[in-house]
Amino acid sequence: FLNFCVATFFFLSGYFVNKEKVLNNSGLWIKNRYIRLGVPFLLWSLFYQLMKVVFSEKISLIEICKSIFFVFSGNGEFHLYFVFVLLQLILLTPMLLRKKKLVYIVVVLSITFHLFRYLNIVWDNSIINNYSKCVFFPWVLFYLYGVFYNENKVKRVFINLFFAVFVNMFEVVVLTELQVSENFVVGQMKLSSVLYAFAVID
User: Fold this and answer.
1) For residue 96, what pLDDT is reported?
2) From CA 74, how far away is CA 119, in angstroms rounded?
3) Nearest-CA neighbor of 27 among 91, 87, 83, 89?
4) Burial class (CB in 10 A: 0-12, 13-18, 19+), 127
5) With 70 as the cut, is the pLDDT of residue 110 above it?
6) Which of 78, 90, 65 is nearest to 133 (CA)?
7) Whole-angstrom Cα distance, residue 49 to residue 136?
8) Can you count the helices (H) and strands (E) in the chain?
9) Cα separation, 10 vs 142, whole angstroms
10) How far from the centroid of its chain's Cα atoms is residue 21's Cα?
């Protein structure tokens, strides 16, 4: 339940963004990133979906269409979703570096997304939507923190690690008592996991 790996991945992805290359030739930078990340992502996603179709009991046009949809929605295979999210962040990066007001808007939208999704799952005990983790909103805070941390344009959050662990454990107990989905309880998208991830990163 102490998850921080994907958040750290996005922080490091933002931290190592070469701002000079992005601002000098955004198109070329995006193109190079998509060749290096997008092509392997697409090929592996297609491979996994092909294997599922081939070894499924029923092969139909509907199943093939569903597989194609899964690939292009970031659900080609469950462990590849973070690459799909990174591809979205790569597209946004030039705009985020040029328009600082957009950064504030994205941060507010990200926080709103977290809260809305959290309340929806806790209050309604909804089944977790696999597509919610495949959009950039839950992860953009960590990416932006990395981008501006590298330029010393953001203050360190200084979250005590032991405090973050305690909060995480407390939230796990509460969510378990509320009979919230186990996938969400042990996942990286609950509020205390965001806190813990920032504590580890900082």
Assistant:
1) 92
2) 24
3) 91
4) exposed
5) yes
6) 78
7) 23
8) 11, 0
9) 6
10) 24
